[in-house]
Amino acid sequence: MTPPHFAPLREKVALITGAGGGLGRSFAIGFAAQGAKVGCLDISEQGLAGTVSDIAKAGGVAIPVLADISDEVSVEKGFAEVVEKFGGVDVLVNNAGIATTPMRLHEMSLADWDRLMAVNLRGAFLCLREALPLMQKKRGGSIVNIASIAGLRGYFPGFSILGGNYSASKGALVALTRQVAIEYAAENIRCNAIAPGFIEDTDLGRERRAATSPGMTSAFEREMSVRVPLGRRGKPDELVELAIYLAGAQSSYVTGQIIAADGGWLAA
User: By CB distance 3.0 to 4.6 Å, which of 180, 195, 214, 247 could disulfide with 191?
Assistant: First the structure.
């Protein structure tokens, strides 16, 4: 994996959460291909081994960082590992997230609410809190939060695919993105978010299909194909290219933006 002559992330250090599989693995591989040294953070040791192996086989540079982003001490140790190996952090991709079993809000337990918020929102906060001082030391950096169209607009009535806890966590991440962008702009630290729509081959999608009846899944797929103007799911590589753009210098005048990669769903 020899980076191209123009590699927007050459010699940058990127820490990517949820890098053990799904979109996180795609981000890690894509960033390494563009010259970044990648700290791959995940709670799954097996998943991390696969991601780091794929990057190494292609000639990239990456290390596994086993950590639980909902745990303060675990996050602190994870960032310390990356700093010890690579000397700092230039880019943070807050990608890790979960969803609970699909249910309506009145059916949701406090444990369902708290567990999801601990990962999706507290985890993002803890990673931001560790990354920002490291970026201040480098006099700049870029943060890419992975939000969701669920944080910008409700889902169709009758399709409890993700749930109010997921939507609330992603809506809060949207607000946090804008606040960080404003608060740290004077220190040359940019913060943007990608709000994915319906993307192929994600861990979240597989979990939802496993937890949802075949009839509900089929009905949702039919409804989605009608309501998404481009008429298809997005591909992971399409998000990777967008994240690389936001992480690199070519987006140096872009901050505080929430970019929906949704095939036009929000516009319809």
Answer: 180
